[in-house]
Amino acid sequence: MPKTWVYAIGLDIFAQLSGASKQAHKVLNSRDCTGESAETDGRKKRKIIHNENENEYENANEMDADEVLIQPRCIAQGEFVVEVLWVGWSETLLRIDGRVELRGFSAHDTETTKILQLSIGATVVTGFGWADLLGVVDSNGQIWRFTPGAGTTCILYVDKDLSSAFDNTVQRVAVTGTEHVAVLHDYGTAITTFSSLPDFYAYSETKEKECRAASRKQLGNHQHLQFTCMRAGEAHFVALDSGGQVYTWGANLHGELLQPRGSIVRPRIVPALEGIPMRDVATNGFVTACLSQDTKDVYIWGWTPDTRIIGLPDAGDDVAGIIDQFGENEDIVIESVAVGNGFIVLASSNSITCELCVWFAGGSDLTNMFGLPRSEKLVKVNGEWSGKRRDEYGVMVSCGTGCIFVSVYQK
User: Fold this and answer.
1) For residue 314, what is the DSSP state?
2) Do residues 33 and 402 touch, judged by C-beta distance below 8 A?
3) Domain range for 205
4) Are 408 and 388 in contact (CB under 8 A)?
């Protein structure tokens, strides 16, 4: 079987990247760097101090060196499939050789990473939450709830009532930073959006069958479509259909919907990109980027609170920018795109030099911590993937709020 390597760089406060056991300390906000998150699903607010007998640090955003992976570190490798299933602020979900591992806050006080175990025949497709893992969706289209527990095995239970409310065909659940929830279901032909996590959890209890049908009827003009993926940002959602068309909905605070008007409650096609087929889409914070099917163009829109990314249009514009740093270079193929909180990451390959590259643009105090300075233009991130032949290897990137994953795999 082909070999796979997964590298990580960035914030590792609760060992959500490395998976190593360590004692968490200092103040961590699981929503952003300025305040605490609300309680969700009975889980406690994230306020961790260095020592119960000591005062909190004056600067809650300062991190020790051992809490940050300054250089890309290989966190998993082997002749098996390694996949990053979900990335939150304080937790990460990985599939390694068929075993699904939860790393981060809920596992920081154990000797090893926690293992997710489902019923026989079911595998984890994706996780959902914002900062922390709230649950998973399995290969049978069922929603599993997550309850933190002691030991190395996670406590999961299938929410049968909630799953049946979506006819057992859930493909993905996405949660924004503002805790709005969207569910992709009915074999990818319907999306239902909830204003809060409690509304989502109470859906099966408060909605009668005809009410659920009415909810799906709201998306009647999209019923003929097959949505293939769905992502969540700080306060908005973005989805891609089988024809490569981009849809957005939610809050339009900083132009992240790329729509000519304000907030939108249901998925609506992005006019500026209509007719341009996309291969993939990524979003985080208030920035969204998508990769064209010909893997030559990356379209980008939204807003960053710090360094401006070249190609990113002014907030509020309903026109997408384009990253054209590579110009008309026919030798460059963009393999993957990912978005963090205020930064963008690309993976590319070159048919002439046979080199795989990872590129970074944007930045903030978070990214400065792990050695990636603010940059308006794309700068190369060095790692062990550099120099590998593109005809033998492929590369993919994914991001959390303050971290980057690079997956290199043999073809």
Assistant:
1) P
2) no
3) 4-410
4) yes
Cα–Cα nearest to 340, from 5, 1, 7, 10: 10
**258 and 278 Cβ atoms separated by less than 8 Å:** no
**pTM, full prediction:** 0.85
Q: Are 375 and 340 in contact (CB under 8 A)?
A: no
Judge whether 242 and 229 are in contact, CB under 8 Å.
no
What's the confidence (pLDDT) of residue 59? Answer: 36
Q: What is the CA radius of gyration of the chain?
A: 20
DSSP conformational letter for 150 = S
Rounded CA gap, 78 and 407, in Å?
12
Q: What is the CATH number of the domain that holds 191?
A: 2.130.10.30
Question: Residue 163 — left, alpha, or beta (φ > 0 → left; ψ -120 to 50 → alpha)?
Answer: alpha
Domain total for the chain? 1
Sign of CA dihedral 318, 360, 3, 78: negative
Contact 126, 231 (CB under 8 A): no
Whole-number Å distance between alpha carbons of 397 and 407 = 6
Q: How confident is the model at residue 29 (pLDDT cuts 50, 70, 90)?
A: very low
Spatial distance between the Cα atoms of 258 and 308, rounded to a whole number of angstroms = 17
Determine the length of the chain.
411
Among the residue ranges 86-90, 364-368, 385-389, the one predicted with the least confidence is 385-389
Q: Report which of 237, 178, 185, 181 is spatially closest to residue 212, judged by C-alpha positions.
A: 185
Q: How far apart are CA 243 and CA 269, in angstroms?
A: 12
Pick from 231, 380, 358, 233: which is nearest to 304 by CA? 233
> Around Cβ 344, how many Cβ atoms within 10 Å?
28
Alpha carbons 334 and 350: distance in angstroms, whole number: 9
With tokens 């260095």, the residue in question is 50
Token duo for residue 364:
């903030």
Task: Enumerate the H helices of 168-266 as residue ranges.
Answer: 197-201, 203-206, 209-217
